[in-house]
Amino acid sequence: MTMSGQNKKRYYHHRVYQQVLKDWYGSERGRSEMLAYCPDVVGVDGLVDSILGNIVTEDQLNLFKLRDSWEKIAGIQLAKVCNPVSIKDGVIQVEVNHPAWIRELQGPLISKRLIKNINNLFGENYCTGFRFVPAGRNV
Fold first, then answer.
1. What is the spatial distance between Cα 39 and Cα 8, in angstroms, rounded to a whole number?
2. Quick check: 60 pLDDT over 80?
3. To the nearest 10°, the Cα dihedral for 13, 19, 25, 26?
4. Helix axes 108-122, 58-74, angle to 10 degrees
5. Would you say the pTM of this structure is higher than 0.85?
6. In degrees rounded to 5, what are phi and psi of residue 55?
């Protein structure tokens, strides 16, 4: 593996700074002083968040989180027949694989339970309602 010109330059400067600090402070303190000038270590999760933050909107990130938690939110039986596909202005669009389930899901008991579970996950008043659509027809 060969180094690019920029990397060679950076490596050279690093070695010069390291030698100067070693000569000035001694080897042990010189090493700790060198570490003080190095950038902080960033975890992979922080790096991914910073990259995705520039590409993906907050609603899309929330949709990923909602999909990951959907079985817990909706229950095993409902999760098998429906799936959230988008979020816009607090309304979650849910794709349903059979029209008979749309009617069932629009009932007040299930809708209120789903809204409560989603708001527990995302915060108060995040979800205001649903739009149920047959599978393959989401807009």
1. 18
2. yes
3. 150
4. 130
5. no
6. -110, -40
φ/ψ bin of 2: left (φ > 0), alpha (ψ from -120 to 50), beta (otherwise): beta
Q: What is the CA radius of gyration of the chain?
A: 26
Alpha-carbon separation of residue 6 from 10, 14, 35, 39, 95 (angstroms): 6, 12, 21, 17, 50
> Which helix (H) or strand (E) covers residue 112, if one does?
helix 108-122
Q: pLDDT value at position 1?
A: 47
Say which amino acid occupies 85: V
Q: Which helix (H) or strand (E) holds 139?
A: none
Predicted confidence (pLDDT) per residue in 70-104, tens digit: 999 999 999 999 999 999 888 999 999 988 898 88
CB contact set of 106 (below 8 Å; sequence gap of 6+): 130, 132
H helix runs in 38-107, sequence order: 44-55, 58-74, 76-81, 99-105
